[in-house]
TrEMBL record:
InterPro entries: dGTPase (IPR006261), dGTPase-like (IPR050135), dNTPase_2 (IPR023023), HD/PDEase_dom (IPR003607), HD_domain (IPR006674), PHydrolase_assoc_dom (IPR026875). It comes from Roseateles rivi. Keywords: Hydrolase. PROSITE patterns: HD. Pfam families: HD, HD_assoc. Residues 63-199 form the HD domain. This is Deoxyguanosinetriphosphate triphosphohydrolase-like protein. Belongs to the dGTPase family. Type 2 subfamily. SMART domains: HDc. HAMAP family: dGTPase_type2 (MF_01212).
Length: 376
């Protein structure tokens, strides 16, 4: 499909922080995507927790498979809307690069450890990874991504962090958090595709783990509708195939709802170009009825999966691992890896080092340093 006038145009990008000549065979957004795929932070996502710890089963989602699913959903929806698929894929593959080991448990404990030093937030850390922590190029730190890619990666930002970023980069990626406005349609879409992906795959992983049952899911209207629809067409279907078919139908309908609702919003707002999009309310969205149904599914998952006693017990152990690692490195800066030893901001270097760890490396390091084996 031809790129729509309101889509981001790689040949009219707001540019990179360090100017570079154009690539002869790739657009600017294709180049960004390739840099992310070749980064060390991207490779580490394969051993980072989504909900279930990496060692708990080969078929559970990881941060890497989640990012790939977000990219697939984003590209599919973006194609129907005439958006730039390469920018969508870039943002989707990069959006979790700053996530800690052990999922949100790691984010929360690092934020707690870093409260005296400015806090920790995984969206901000993802931007930090692509702006400075990756070390691959002779001419600059980080990956030197385009403004549009960086804008999409930073989907949340506190006022204090936005003020700090704005001071470093006036009119930059944090400007909208201080003065209102929206990011590109591609960034808006990735935000929603992230929500679509994790709700669907957490249902799948939750049942696979035995922590959720189909009987429980029948109480969730969004799942119930497609479960009954599937059984009406295939009365003998059961087990994994019944679950997979139900999730497939549910996810497809959510995708169609986003496409139809966004098309209507775009037709009404009629933005002339990508810059006009930034001055309008959020345009990529669910219908009201689907938004309500999706929010109810998220509430169910929070109560029955994310706060399940078995998941919560592992969360507490994971928090202990990372807290004790942080305390150790804070007290022993010489034991950080060589390229962050002697950093001016030592607490931030500790957080960078720990956030970059995979689940299994964090567990190995913790056991080596403390003699305790808390997980695995």
């Amino acid at each position: 499909m031809q790129r729509a006038p309101y889509a981001s145009d790689p040949y009219r990008s707001a540019g990179r922080r360090v100017a570079e000549p154009p690539a002869p065979t790739r657009s600017e957004f294709q180049r960004d995507r390739d840099r992310i795929v070749h980064s060390t932070a991207f490779r580490r996502l394969v051993y980072k927790t989504q909900v279930f710890l990496n060692h708990e089963g080969d078929l559970f989602r990881t941060r890497l498979t989640h990012s790939l699913e977000v990219a697939q959903l984003g590209r599919s929806i973006g194609r129907s809307l005439g958006l730039d698929e390469d920018l969508i894929e870039t943002i989707a593959l990069a959006h979790d690069l700053g996530h800690t080991p052990f999922g949100h448990a790691g984010q929360d404990v690092l934020n707690d450890c870093m409260k005296p030093y400015g806090g920790f937030e995984h969206n901000l850390q993802s931007l930090r990874v692509v702006d400075s922590l990756e070390q691959r190029y002779a001419a600059f730190d980080g990956l030197n991504l385009c403004f549009e890619s960086r804008e999409g990666i930073l989907k949340h930002c506190s006022k204090a962090d936005a003020l700090r970023l704005e001071a470093q980069e006036p009119q930059g990626v944090a400007h909208r958090f201080l003065h209102g406005g929206q990011p590109s349609l591609e960034a808006q879409l990735c935000n929603l595709a992230d929500e679509l992906a994790y709700s669907a795959h957490d249902v799948d992983d939750g049942v696979r783990s035995g922590l959720l049952t189909l009987e429980q899911l029948e109480d969730v209207p969004l799942v119930q509708h497609y479960l009954r629809e599937t059984l009406a067409e295939y009365p003998a279907l059961q087990g994994r195939r019944l679950l997979s078919e139900t999730i497939r139908r549910m996810l497809s309908q959510q995708v169609y709802d986003v496409i139809d609702t966004t098309r209507a919003a775009l037709a009404h707002a009629a933005p002339a170009d990508a810059d006009a999009v930034r001055k309008l309310p959020r345009l990529v969205r669910f219908s009201e009825s689907m938004r309500t149904a999706s929010a109810e599914l998220k509430r169910f998952l929070f109560a029955n999966l994310y706060r399940n006693p078995q998941v919560h017990d592992k969360r507490l152990r994971a928090e202990q691992v990372l807290r004790e690692l942080f305390e150790h490195y804070l007290a022993h800066p010489d034991q950080l890896k060589l390229d962050v030893q002697g950093a001016v901001d030592h607490p931030r270097a500790c957080a960078d080092y720990i956030a970059g760890m995979t689940d299994r490396y964090a567990l190995r390091e913790h056991e080596r340093l403390t003699g305790k084996r808390l997980l695995g």
